[in-house]
């Protein structure tokens, strides 16, 4: 006898969709229109031991990334081959050299580094938690992470029978997630510090650099509104809108026309050529005018996330190099041998792409155990399984350094079905796996939260047979955590 699947709780799903829209957990679809983000109806569980490991080691990773970002000699030496293979990163490295000088004549830009980092993990069945990637520019969706945790709390309180049916471990304690609040508190503290240093009166001013026609606007606005409630003036500008409107005040103060001094610049754009492209500007080289706007910002005494250095330091190539370093080599950036070994334990194996690797891959590597990645941000930049070998065979040697092979992680499936809700439509999913991103904030190398820099988390779950797990672009959905003893 075949059992029918359980009936979907229609009233609870409708309530959850309305809650999501009402609390800004949404993506813009057209002017004046939005849809809720995809979400799971109940949370996933993680062991207390593994969660404690991530809470301990992730701030160490942030310290390491900060040290690398502030080491221009290493970045320029390590990334020159990759920059020759990847035109966009070549563009960034040229900008880095203008800001920091060459190896023979180094210089220090006036900006102060504000590192807002999201370190993404998967919990592999064999290796345990392993880093997927570092997100150092446009490291978003912290506000959504807090919101979906609040949604699950709402469902647990108001429809407990539904929650108990669909949560992985219904009696487990929820892991508090105050990512929106803690990120805002950290940024506000930096903005106030910069305003006091400037000697200017008035509210500290925060500028978020955004993409034109942004559809992920509500996540950004949740952060802006939280900052406004803390007394921070917030502005949204594209690079094109900033072009020609910035100037220099006393003591290298960054000024914006009709606004005055700027205390924090937070980039939610700048990770692709399109963010620097302007059809109405005459340029000798593509994207140069708006790149110079980004350069101008870093030449002033303003807190900046992400600096060009931070963007380079969170590249896939640096991640690969770290995976191959010894703990002693990591000591260059201030980690003790014990701390470096802790970091190493979370770095999944990676290999460069070269002629020897391509030959070995063809002769004996199992393609299902590897992922081929380029330097791109977001979804759509990875190849899996049988798609890897043809791409390797088709590569020109000049492309090799833009790519890397990473061990494919296989997290355990959620141990019971749950409900995925997308565009108001719910369906039961039996094979969800989850990706966990932990946020940290450091300013001038110092942690900006009481938790050693940790500022909340983002869980994205997806069906195990889907390769692209992004909420914005992919088959991922927002989720939250509960803690197993």
Automatic annotation (TrEMBL):
Cofactors, names only:
Mg(2+)
| Keyword annotations of the record | ATP-binding, Glutathione biosynthesis, Ligase, Magnesium, Metal-binding, Nucleotide-binding
* GO molecular function annotation: ATP binding; glutathione binding; glutathione synthase activity; metal ion binding
Q: Could you tell me which residue ranges the Glutathione synthase substrate-binding domain spans?
A: 205-313
The pathway to which it is assigned is: Sulfur metabolism; glutathione biosynthesis; glutathione from L-cysteine and L-glutamate: step 2/2
Per the UniProt entry, the Enzyme Commission number(s) are: 6.3.2.3
Q: What class of enzyme is it?
A: ligase
Gene3D superfamilies, per this entry?
3.30.1490.50, 3.30.1490.80, ATP-grasp fold, B domain (3.30.470.20), Glutathione synthase, substrate-binding domain superfamily, eukaryotic (3.40.50.1760), Glutathione Synthetase, Chain A, domain 3 (1.10.1080.10)
Does ATP-binding count among this protein's keywords? yes
A Pfam family annotated for this chain is GSH_synth_ATP
- GO cellular component, as recorded: cytosol
Q: Which SUPFAM superfamilies match?
A: Glutathione synthetase ATP-binding domain-like (SSF56059), PreATP-grasp domain (SSF52440)
- Indicate the family of this protein: Belongs to the eukaryotic GSH synthase family.
Query: What is the name of the protein in this document?
Result: glutathione synthase
């Amino acid at each position: 006898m075949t059992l029918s699947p359980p009936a979907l709780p229609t009233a609870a799903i409708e309530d959850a969709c309305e809650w999501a829209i009402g609390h800004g957990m949404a993506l813009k679809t057209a002017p004046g229109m939005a849809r809720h983000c995809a979400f799971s109806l109940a949370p996933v569980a993680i062991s207390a031991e593994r969660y404690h490991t991530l809470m301990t080691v992730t701030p160490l990773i942030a310290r390491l990334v900060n040290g690398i970002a502030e080491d221009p000699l290493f970045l320029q030496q390590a990334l020159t081959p990759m920059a020759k293979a990847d035109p966009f990163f070549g563009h960034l490295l040229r900008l880095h050299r203008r800001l920091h000088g060459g190896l023979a004549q180094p210089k220090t830009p006036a900006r102060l580094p504000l590192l807002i980092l999201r370190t993404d993990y998967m919990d592999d069945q064999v290796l345990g938690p392993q880093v997927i990637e570092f997100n150092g520019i446009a490291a978003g969706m912290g506000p959504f992470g807090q919101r979906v945790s609040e949604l699950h709390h709402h469902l647990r309180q108001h429809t407990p029978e539904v929650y108990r049916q669909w949560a992985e471990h219904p009696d487990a304690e929820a892991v508090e997630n105050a990512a929106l609040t803690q990120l805002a508190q950290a940024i506000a503290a930096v903005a106030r510090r910069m305003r006091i240093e400037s000697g200017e009166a008035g509210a500290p001013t925060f500028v978020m650099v955004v993409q034109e026609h942004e559809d992920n606007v509500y996540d950004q606005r949740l952060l802006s509104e939280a900052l406004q409630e803390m007394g921070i003036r917030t502005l949204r500008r594209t690079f094109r809108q900033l072009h020609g409107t910035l100037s220099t005040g006393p003591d290298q103060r960054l000024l914006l026309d009709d606004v005055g001094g700027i205390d924090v610049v937070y980039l939610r754009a700048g990770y692709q050529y399109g963010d620097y492209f302007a059809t109405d500007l005459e340029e000798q080289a593509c994207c140069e005018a708006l790149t110079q706007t980004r350069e101008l910002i870093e030449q002033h005494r303003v807190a900046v996330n992400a600096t060009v250095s931070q963007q380079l330091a969170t590249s896939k190539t640096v991640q690969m190099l770290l995976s191959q370093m010894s703990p002693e080599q990591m000591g260059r950036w201030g980690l003790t041998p014990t701390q470096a070994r802790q970091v190493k334990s979370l770095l999944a194996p990676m290999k460069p792409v070269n002629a020897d690797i391509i030959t070995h891959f063809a002769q004996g590597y199992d393609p299902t155990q590897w992922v081929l990645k380029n330097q791109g941000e977001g979804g759509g930049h990875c190849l899996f399984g049988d798609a890897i070998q043809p791409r390797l065979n088709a590569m020109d040697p000049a492309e090799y350094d833009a790519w890397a092979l990473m061990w494919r992680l296989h997290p355990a499936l959620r141990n019971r079905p749950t409900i995925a809700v997308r565009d108001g439509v719910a369906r039961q999913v039996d094979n969800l796996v989850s990706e966990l991103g932990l946020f940290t904030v450091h300013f001038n190398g110092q942690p900006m939260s009481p938790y050693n820099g940790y500022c909340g988390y983002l869980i994205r779950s997806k069906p195990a047979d889907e390769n692209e797990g992004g909420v914005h672009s992919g088959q991922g959905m927002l989720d939250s955590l509960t803690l197993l003893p």
